[in-house]
Design a protein that fits this description.
- By secondary structure, the chain is α+β, with helices and mostly antiparallel strands.
- The chain contains ten helices and eleven strands.
- The strands form three sheets. Strands 4-5-6-9-8-7 form a six-stranded antiparallel sheet. Strands 3-11-10 form a three-stranded antiparallel sheet, covered by helices on one side. It has a two-stranded antiparallel ribbon with strand order 1-2.
- The longest helix is centred in the first third of the chain and has 14 residues.
């Protein structure tokens, strides 16, 4: 059994400070190293490693004798778009997911035709043992690995594309080119800890927290055509939802609308 390790302390401090910077704190400068050491109960080397990562991402400016300050807004807006948090507007399911795919790089780890296991067969409404394409890919941004994605597609659809095509185009676009008309998707998001293999692919420590996404894609006839399992680094990826209330005064229901998926 793989032994799970805690998230490194410097990374926890980095995440906290990064979030506070995004909230607009530290207008007058970040606390000094000694103050941060006391706040987080860590050694100076741990604080410095967290600050070095923030500086490496261009979020702070460190000046000897003058302290540490957030990077000016005008400098951030001039940075290349690939170095900033990127956002794909949801103009439609297919458009959003393809847009995200086109703005990241992909490395195909494996593509195989396999017999559908019980859960996969159930998701895709196939008989157990039916032939499906299993593809495993790592997507990355300019900052490094973003996600480890495993997809299952019925062989009747996936026979038109393989490793070479998956390395060049988003899988939903390839499915559309194969005649599939995407209709809707059902998605759940939970949390998971990275095991040794996942940690290696996503450049993380074993036991690091991840966003686990389960997505089932349906065509316009409401037939499942793709089952996806994705593991995302939460420091580089987030979902944004908006809730609105509908119904009359006696029965009001809150419904969610996915606005966008953001990656950093």
């Amino acid at each position: 059994m793989t032994q799970l390790m805690p998230v490194p302390k410097y990374h926890q401090i980095y995440l906290v400070l990064r979030e506070q910077l995004q909230e607009g704190r530290f207008v007058n400068g970040l606390p000094g190293e000694l103050a941060l050491m006391r706040e987080f109960s860590v050694a100076r080397v741990t604080v410095r490693r967290a600050l070095e990562r923030l500086a490496g991402e261009g979020l702070i400016v460190r000046q000897p004798g003058r302290g540490t300050t957030p990077t000016p807004t005008d400098v951030l807006t001039q940075k290349d778009a690939s170095d900033r948090p990127q956002r794909a507007q949801l103009n439609g399911l297919l458009e959003n997911l393809i847009s995200m795919g086109l703005r990241t790089k992909v490395r195909v780890l494996s593509v195989d035709t396999v017999a559908a296991s019980g859960p996969v067969a159930q998701n895709l409404q196939l008989a157990v043992g039916s032939q499906v394409q299993k593809a495993v890919r790592v997507r990355s941004t300019a900052q490094g690995p973003l996600s480890l994605i495993t997809t299952y597609v019925p062989d009747s659809i996936a026979k038109n594309f393989g490793c070479e095509e998956l390395a060049e185009k988003p899988i939903l676009l390839l499915m559309e080119e194969s005649g599939v008309r995407v209709g809707r998707a059902h998605q759940t998001i939970s949390a998971k800890l990275a095991d040794a293999e996942v940690a290696r692919h996503l450049d993380l420590s074993v036991g690091s927290p991840l966003l686990a996404v389960q997505r089932l894609i349906y065509d316009e006839h409401d037939r499942p055509v793709q089952s996806l399992h994705g593991l995302y680094r939460p420091d580089r990826y987030e979902y944004e939802l908006e809730l609105s209330r509908v119904g009359n005064i006696d029965a009001k229901v809150w419904v969610s609308h996915e606005l966008s998926a953001r990656f950093h």
